[in-house]
Amino acid sequence: LISLFKIRSSSIGNNKVIHSIFREGSMKFSVAVVLAAAALAAAPADAFARPFGVFSTRSGLKMSATTTDEVVVIPTTPIEGMRPGTSGLRKKVEVWQEKHYVENFIQSLIDTAVDSNGGKMLDTIVVAGDGRYYNDEAIQTISNICAANGIANIWIPQGGIMSTPAVSAVIRRRTESGGGEDGEGIAQGGIVLTASHNPGGPGEDFGIKYNEGLGQPADEKFTDTLYQKTLEIASYKTVADSPDIDLNAPVGTKYQLTPTSAVTIIDPFQNYLDALKSCFDFDQLRKFGSSGFSILFDGMHGAGGQFAKRVLVEELGLPESSLMRCNPLPDFGKCHPDPNLTYASELVKKMGLKSDGSADASTDASTLPMLGAANDGDGDRNLIAGAGFFVTPSDSMALICDNYEAIPQFAATGLNGVARSMPSSAALDVVAEARNIPCFVTPTGWKFFGNLMSSKESFDGKDYTPFICGEESFGTGSDHVREKDGLWAVLAWMSILSKANEGVSEGEALVGVKEIVTKHWAKYGRHFYCRYDYEGVDSDAANQVMDIIRDNLVNGDASSVESGDADIKFVDAVEFGYTDPVDGSETSKQGLILNFELGPSGDPARVVFRLSGTGSAGATIRMYLEQYENDTSKHGISAPVALKDLADEALRLVQMEKTTGREAPTVIT
What we know:
Elements: H1 2-5, H2 14-23, H3 31-42, E1 54-56, E2 62-64, E3 71-75, E4 89-92, H4 93-96, H5 101-116, E5 124-129, H6 135-148, E6 153-157, H7 164-173, E7 190-193, E8 205-211, H8 220-230, E9 235-239, E10 253-258, E11 261-266, H9 270-277, H10 282-289, E12 295-298, H11 304-315, E13 323-324, H12 345-350, E14 371-375, E15 382-386, E16 389-391, H13 393-402, H14 408-411, E17 417-421, H15 427-434, E18 439-442, H16 446-453, H17 455-459, E19 467-471, E20 475-478, H18 486-500, H19 513-524, E21 526-537, H20 539-554, E22 568-575, E23 578-579, E24 586-587, E25 592-598, E26 604-611, E27 619-629, H21 639-642, H22 644-654, H23 656-660, E28 667-668
Parallel strand pairs: 2-10, 5-6, 5-7, 6-11, 12-13, 12-14, 17-18, 17-19
Antiparallel strand pairs: 1-2, 3-9, 4-8, 7-8, 10-11, 14-15, 15-16, 19-20, 21-27, 21-28, 22-25, 23-24, 25-26, 26-27
Helix pairs in contact: 2-3, 5-6, 5-8, 7-9, 13-15
């Protein structure tokens, strides 16, 4: 009614409002209309620029009383540099704050989503972020653009914050009936505001990525089309003078931005919690948690912290002292929210570890938490450690695969497929071969795993689920969502520890992470593994390093390469490419692999070089080192020490210091 009459108190008096209403037919208007008109007349002149309040509909939703239906078309011009990387578009936040930047990218994204939806506008979409600086402002802008384009339902989590795997869970698990007080419908996609593990705050990083209808990251066809549209855009749509959405409003609050488009505040936890409960026995984990188990979880002030509190404390009954830095902050508390040995240094120290992952001999391991874990900025990555014992991401994935019977998600049916990114170690391959499980090696990027998990669902192909997958950069997950999931990995390790301690009598020492991993190495051999990151390298210098490898080692004569170490023989070099077994698409130039042979054992070793696509400025050269060791007497050596000679030989061959000026990596993990 308020939108219908559009009467302002500054131009018409109280009596005139009421008289004019009754002149139109007093007997046809209820007392409610009179009261509404009187309240409107008493309101300030700018009342229509703000929400008038909320009321409850018959469905239980709280509805904003104001409808702003003025859709405007804003002329714009293309902005260069909007090509998404492996996980969306990431730039310094000041770039995103430039005029038309967010608007151009989102309009191009929506147009691309419409194309991939057969030319039809999406009906429902999730808009959520990891809580970093500029998150709230960007959500307001994006909501207006979505509404102006005709997306009927825009779901925003309470607080505006949701972990990336939780967004995927909402897309995958919501049904037509909704299942809560926050409305009905099925999301057809999600706009995720995150730069993942990159720092946040003024002068730091911001990013936007898109998840498609199965909850999976947008594939290369989608991102290539999106980029092309950013080069052709001439205008974008938005809602003029739209009131700000209160992101902290109660779950179920609804803001009607246009007559056909509304924002609804949804519960950020429920669908994700349902997904985890479909994977794990929460009753058993709760019992294990009260029988001597202890954990220290570092949320790194990212989006995953509030989910860890909900699961570990509220669901599993663990004490709040199990959590550290689990309150999301726009600048992540000035920390770099990347869960590795360097940036999770406080957790690493509390777990009795040195910065290289080796045990600190001065610490009594019996006084330490049984399990240590960390999330990154958007809650999809994980670090796993035991008391005085660090577990590499590659070993973690191999251990989960070999112990899948401990996880209810897999116990009944087993695994139909596993996959790793190419730079990850071959520890998974060895287990998969022994357990007769199909194993795939893909380029880095979760979207490649998404195709395998959705082979039957999307392409009517072979069903590889149940499925686990992971990548070298601390990412692990399964088919319960279509993103890597840090908290899922933590619960997987809790399940493995619980299973390993089933026969332990009360009062006996519990079997810990170290015992489980060393037993695994004794069975399969150890794949020593670590990564050197050279961050913020001049882009030209970084590309020159890659060109030296291609020219001298990939395309050169391997027999003419002189060895700098008699015990490390260069064998050959290849550039990794990938043909997707599901849709046949081809991806090239996904990393340069240098293969070596170690003397006198003849064991294989390799070094992989990649340019990372997850930074916002300069280039990051990643060097991945791996060598196999079957001698159990050598398994206790720390990985950086064991791999030092291999690293020195590889750096000599690629002329790293001469080309980049870098004497040492930024991070070793």
